[in-house]
Design brief:
This protein is α/β, with parallel strands linked by helices. It is 47% helix and 20% strand.
Length: 546
């Protein structure tokens, strides 16, 4: 008969046996899990596209995966057991052990983390850029560091190529700007002289049968002036001299005025020009926005041989798009970006100057960017195009009624043309033409080719001029602003002064604008100059005229 003690011992034995069996089975499972985990690690380690290197606390390489072999050119057997600094060029090699010792002593993570760009050293001695990420782990109570390396040679080469291309484009753009400025200045001088001579000749031939030839010559000069003004607009925008003056205004008045301006041109081509009335009030710079729409309308009429041009507005929430539709030649979709580049005219390969220079849309893009307005283009070759500028509507809550200005008295505008005009210009032909024209208007003229000549002539005459007209760029690096300052000091009075410039170089334009004097740009039409003289001789200076 089995007693209770035997049962107790048997139970204990069974528990011990079960525990032992459990320990055996548990150890087997644990070893199996370890083997599986190691197999997964080995698979990742071997298949990784990036190089993986593990080192101990002394910097000795413990593991080196196949990707690291490809990157560095060493086999794992050649590097395992050696210091990882062998894979680094100077100064990274000398710094490495110092970084590691500093981290082990202080815990400051100078080497732990991702996104560090360093250099690697291949077996063949070549150096290459690489991204290095370093992580830390503990194995059997010891620290182990794992580094993941990515060769970024191609990425750096691509970045360098892009940088070089950008620098080359910037150099080309600067050279283009410099060339345009120089060419524009050199063209403006003779064109300005032609304006003055044509005006003087027109006065002498009034009533003569040859007077019509002078009118034709003046019309040709107006066309040339329009082209030069486009060049000046591009230069002034690139120089950052155009400052928007944002205000609320009715778009309808702008469209009505432009429609009236373009009606004769459209009629000459047999086109129908229609403008849809609008009562919308927008927020923009009226002059600059007008220039955008003007250029869009000019292009629409220029490239439409039959049919119509329609100008109207469409609301989009708190914005308004001013749209110009035409039935012209249209633009291929893949070339809509190209048309905003300078001197690009898709339908003018023969460079017919009656069809402009190809600067209109380049100016439109610059003005739109300056005003933070969007330009939209939709076109179908052979059927026509839509160009639109999207502008914000004015906030009704912020609008205030405008006061009507009282017109000046007519007597204030009737200024007698007399007085002494000092001319300073180092171009003899411009000087002579301007003097002849001013004398024909009734002014007394003192002409000088330099500041010294002007001071000498006025010192002999002992009379201050009524007004000074000075070219900006004079001989030997001097400027018209310097001449004005010296002559004002000579007579101790702020003589009304106008700077005339043919320069379009951005830095020259900025210098001229900074002088605070009234500025006009060559070539200036005689009637415009006549009005400026009248205005300047009766008003304080410091106005800029374009």
């Amino acid at each position: 008969m089995i007693g209770p003690a035997f049962l107790t011992i048997a139970a204990i034995a069974l528990v011990i046996a079960g525990t032992a069996l459990g320990l055996v089975l548990g150890g087997w499972r644990h070893r199996t899990r370890l083997r599986d985990a190691q197999a997964r690690i080995d698979a990742v380690f071997g298949a990784a596209a990036d190089g993986i290197i593990t080192i101990d606390e002394a910097g000795i390489i413990a593991a080196f995966n196949p990707a690291a072999e490809r990157i560095f050119g060493y086999s794992a057997a050649e590097v395992i057991g050696r210091n990882v600094s062998m894979l680094m060029p100077e100064p990274f090699r000398s710094a490495h052990d110092g970084y590691l010792r500093h981290y082990l002593a202080t815990g400051e993570a100078r080497i732990i983390g991702i996104g560090r760009e360093v250099q690697g050293l291949r077996k063949d001695g070549s150096v290459f850029p690489m991204d290095l990420a370093v992580g830390e782990a503990r194995m059997a109570g010891r620290r182990v560091f794992a580094g993941i390396i990515r060769d970024i040679t191609e990425r750096k080469r691509t970045a360098d190529d892009l940088r070089a291309a950008k620098e080359e484009a910037e150099r080309a753009n600067a050279a283009k700007t410099k060339f345009l400025a120089a060419a524009s200045h050199d063209l403006r001088q003779p064109v300005q002289a032609l304006y003055f001579f044509a005006s003087a000749l027109a006065n002498k031939l009034r009533g003569h049968r040859a007077h019509s030839l002078v009118r034709d010559m003046q019309a040709s000069l107006d066309g040339l002036n329009m082209l030069l003004e486009s060049l000046l607009d591009v230069s002034r925008l690139d120089a950052g001299l155009v400052v928007p003056r944002m205000t609320d205004f009715g778009i309808g008045a702008v469209l009505d005025r432009l429609a009236a301006d373009f009606a004769p041109l459209a009629a000459d081509k047999g086109l129908t020009l229609r403008t849809v009335p609008s009562s919308a009030v927008v927020r923009s710079d009226p002059a600059l926005l007008s220039r955008i729409v003007q250029n869009l309308m000019a292009n629409a009429i220029r490239y439409t041989s039959r049919g119509s041009v329609l100008v109207g507005c469409r609301r989009h929430g708190r914005s308004l798009s001013v749209e110009v539709w035409d039935t012209g030649i249209g633009i291929p979709a893949e070339r809509t970006r190209e048309i905003f580049e300078e001197f690009t005219q898709l339908a003018n390969p023969e460079r017919d100057r009656h069809r402009g220079l190809g600067l209109g849309l380049a100016i439109v893009e610059r003005l739109a960017r300056l005003l933070n307005h969007q330009i939209l283009v939709r076109s179908t070759p052979g059927k026509g195009s839509l160009f639109a500028v999207v502008i914000p509507l004015a906030n009704p809550a912020l609008r205030r009624p405008r006061r009507r200005r009282r017109p000046p008295e007519a007597s204030a505008r009737m200024i007698a043309e007399h007085g002494l005009v000092l001319l300073i210009d180092d171009e003899p032909v411009v000087l002579k033409g301007l003097a002849l024209m001013l004398q024909a208007w009734g002014y007394e003229v003192v002409s000088a080719g330099s500041t010294a000549e002007a001071v000498d002539a006025l010192s002999r005459d002992h009379r201050p001029p009524s007004i000074i007209l000075a070219d900006y760029r004079l001989r030997e690096g001097h400027t018209g602003t310097e001449a004005v300052r010296l002559i004002r000091e000579l007579f101790h009075t702020a003589i009304p002064s106008v700077i005339i410039t043919g320069d379009t170089a951005p830095e020259r334009l900025r210098e001229a604008e900074a002088s605070g004097l009234s500025i006009v740009h060559k070539p200036i039409q005689p009637q415009a100059l006549r009005e400026i003289l009248r205005s300047e001789m009766t008003q304080p200076p410091n106005r800029t005229v374009h």
